[in-house]
């Protein structure tokens, strides 16, 4: 049953992507209702699938593939909501592609990492904050890449060829720093709850998570300071945002990928 749900969700994500791409390539109108309906149905199937994969009688299966699928769901949900108000067509095919790939991998390459969060609500709070901070800052990295691409177009005097389905440069920049500001706040809360609630946060095999997460926090803090105090823009912003997201990816998935996928 889970395999059928995964296939249905992947097809619906693919339908949304197939509806968006012609508009980006040919600079024609995109059928927003078709994309939205496909995305809503895909997200519904995705949510049902996650419920089956994560929750079981033995506890919660927070394997690396299940967590990756959960993060893809959160990002896809946020971006689908944003689609109603802003022109984020450039990013949606990337987001939906990762969602389809991750949910398919979680379904057909099952792995297990059983936890019992019902007995540890403090850890549940910490993990929830970590998931939302990573998802938010990953969206920020996508916005930064889009910002760099739009900036490159304008600097090379290709403004007239920019697709009308793409958002204005300044609007993307404003949204980017709002996202990074929110994500950094969530990351701060994640680090604080980690120090307070997770007793073995710097135990052997776990220390890298705290260190890399703190390094990412420093990068995002410097980026926000540089933008609001020094007026940083352009490539520097993109490099900082992508570097921060890369460090968080290594922190959250690095060692677990080796243990669960390569060594399993």
TrEMBL record:
<keyword id="KW-0472">Membrane</keyword>
<feature type="domain" description="Cytochrome c assembly protein">
    <location>
        <begin position="38"/>
        <end position="262"/>
    </location>
</feature>
<dbReference type="GO" id="GO:0020037">
    <property type="term" value="F:heme binding"/>
</dbReference>
<dbReference type="InterPro" id="IPR052372">
    <property type="entry name" value="YpjD/HemX"/>
</dbReference>
<feature type="transmembrane region" description="Helical">
    <location>
        <begin position="88"/>
        <end position="111"/>
    </location>
</feature>
<dbReference type="GO" id="GO:0004355">
    <property type="term" value="F:glutamate synthase (NADPH) activity"/>
</dbReference>
<feature type="transmembrane region" description="Helical">
    <location>
        <begin position="123"/>
        <end position="145"/>
    </location>
</feature>
<keyword id="KW-0812">Transmembrane</keyword>
<dbReference type="Pfam" id="PF01578">
    <property type="entry name" value="Cytochrom_C_asm"/>
</dbReference>
<feature type="transmembrane region" description="Helical">
    <location>
        <begin position="62"/>
        <end position="82"/>
    </location>
</feature>
<feature type="transmembrane region" description="Helical">
    <location>
        <begin position="210"/>
        <end position="228"/>
    </location>
</feature>
<dbReference type="GO" id="GO:0005886">
    <property type="term" value="C:plasma membrane"/>
</dbReference>
<feature type="transmembrane region" description="Helical">
    <location>
        <begin position="176"/>
        <end position="198"/>
    </location>
</feature>
<dbReference type="GO" id="GO:0017004">
    <property type="term" value="P:cytochrome complex assembly"/>
</dbReference>
<dbReference type="InterPro" id="IPR002541">
    <property type="entry name" value="Cyt_c_assembly"/>
</dbReference>
<feature type="transmembrane region" description="Helical">
    <location>
        <begin position="240"/>
        <end position="258"/>
    </location>
</feature>
<feature type="transmembrane region" description="Helical">
    <location>
        <begin position="34"/>
        <end position="55"/>
    </location>
</feature>
<keyword id="KW-1133">Transmembrane helix</keyword>
<protein>
    <submittedName>
        <fullName>Glutamate synthase [NADPH] small chain</fullName>
        <ecNumber>1.4.1.13</ecNumber>
    </submittedName>
</protein>
<keyword id="KW-0560">Oxidoreductase</keyword>
């Amino acid at each position: 049953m889970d395999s059928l749900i995964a296939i249905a969700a992947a097809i619906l994500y693919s339908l949304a992507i197939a509806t968006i791409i012609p508009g980006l390539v040919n600079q024609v109108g995109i059928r927003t209702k078709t994309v939205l309906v496909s995305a809503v149905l895909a997200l519904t199937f995705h949510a049902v699938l996650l419920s089956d994969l994560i929750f079981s009688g033995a506890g919660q299966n927070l394997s690396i593939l299940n967590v990756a699928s959960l993060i893809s769901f959160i990002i896809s949900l946020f971006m689908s909501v944003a689609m109603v108000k802003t022109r984020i067509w450039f990013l949606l095919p990337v987001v939906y592609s990762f969602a389809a790939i991750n949910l398919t991998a979680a379904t057909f390459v099952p792995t297990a990492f059983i936890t019992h969060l019902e007995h540890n609500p403090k850890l549940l709070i910490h993990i929830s904050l970590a998931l939302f901070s990573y998802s938010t800052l990953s969206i920020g990295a996508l916005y930064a890449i889009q910002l760099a691409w739009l900036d490159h177009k304008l600097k090379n005097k290709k403004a007239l060829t920019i697709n009308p389905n793409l958002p204005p440069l300044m609007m993307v920049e404003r949204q980017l720093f709002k996202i990074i500001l929110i994500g950094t706040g969530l990351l701060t809360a994640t680090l604080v709850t980690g120090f307070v609630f997770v007793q073995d946060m710097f135990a052997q095999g776990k220390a890298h998570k705290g260190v890399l997460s703190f390094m990412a926090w420093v990068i995002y803090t410097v980026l926000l300071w540089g933008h609001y105090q020094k007026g940083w823009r352009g490539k520097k912003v993109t490099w900082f945002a992508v570097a921060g997201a890369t460090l968080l990816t290594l922190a959250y998935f690095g060692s677990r990928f080796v243990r669960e996928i390569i060594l399993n």
